[in-house]
Amino acid sequence: MTGLEKIRSERTRDYNPYADIAIADNLAELADRREKCPLSYSTTGPDGFWVATAYDDISALLRRNSRGVVSYPNSPFGVTDMKGGQKAMIPIEIDGPAHYQYRKLLDPFFAPAAIAELEPKVRKVAISLIDEFIEDGHCDFVPQFAFSFPGSTVMQLMGWPLAGGPMMASWVDTLLHGVRGATEDESNAARVAVMGKVREYFIDQIDRRRRSPTSDVTTFMLNVELDGRKLTEDELYDNFVLMMTAGLDTVNSVLAQSFVYLGGHQELWSQMFESPENLDLAIEEFLRWGSPAVPTRTVTDEGIVVRDLEIPVGERVHCPLAAANRDPKYYPEPDEVRLDRPLKPHLAFGLGPHRCIGSHLARMEMRVAYEELHRRIPEFRLDETKPPRDHLGLAWGTENVHILFAPGTRDAAAS
After folding, report:
1. In a domain? residue 86
2. Model confidence pTM above 0.90
3. CATH at residue 221
4. Which residues form the domain of 39?
5. Where are the beta strands (DSSP E) in 180-247?
6. Is 42 helix (H, G, I), strand (E, B) or coil?
7. Rounded (10°) CA dihedral 108, 109, 113, 118
8. Residue 49: count of CB within 10 angstroms of its CB
9. Sheet bearing 49-52, strands edge to edge
10. 304, 310 contact by CB (below 8 A)
């Protein structure tokens, strides 16, 4: 037995990142690991990977991007071949100066001032979506609001047709979560097929914007220069895919999970709006509590130590951000959403060079969503005949949240 085989065998505890279980059950399993074996090894998948569970370990790894660890491949199973070849996805799987250059291009669109200008349009979308079900007294909150709302925001920002939202949502679902009940090979085949459709769609959007330029992000990306040259089709494509997946899935996931929680904690739904400060605290708590992202890092340098273990070069470490954000070392009673929690920066948006560029947008979207939903639906309950269903994958989330409430009227201002 080699040295690597020995340290793997001593800490083997298999973990399926695509398991068909509830998020709460998965977090309970990760909490048990954190207590008994905070850094464990899983033989699941083609090559195996490590699973980190503690806040300190995960935050230390994320900070080390370009300094001993890299972002490629950003999957515990290694290269999934979603693009038909072993090429890092720009910019989420590249590091160092190249990553910084791509990120710097988009920074102005996600700065606080730019997000503030976008807010009236975002609020109008929220009002219009609520109008579609407010008279019914019930809805499936995920497809009817949580997914459509951030998706519409990103599509407006990018200048993509809003009518393509449902189609794009189905693509994101396959890319991030695979095919329900399928093997990983079958899911990867489905991802490759979807990526072909996505490429055709974005080629069409690029052609459309070249013919009719506007002030949207797509037009900007077509005309911007990097090192004295315009972006290639591959570079544009990768950046657009990131905008699509991150923009349509992250806020949706936190909103959906939070409404499951609020369905059983209506006192919190009222308390959140007692002051602007309370709403800000609630947003941060739900971001902590419902963090969907699960990055993976690959070790590139000798001597990288995680906890008490030196991780060999080439090993991958899977980092569920929700596990870090439920670490009781920093968050007492971590499974509860508390507005009086002492401030400790959460990792919902990641950390280090790859910290989410859309954090200001996400917070604004959540604030607008909660404000408009509470204004129209001050009380609601979960429909117990249609329980929520979760999924894991490269981004965790809840697929359905059926709620019941007193019917209201459509918003005259929106009309």
Report:
1. yes
2. yes
3. 1.10.630.10
4. 3-404
5. 225-226, 229-230
6. strand
7. 170
8. 22
9. 39-42, 49-52, 316-318, 296-299, 69-70
10. yes
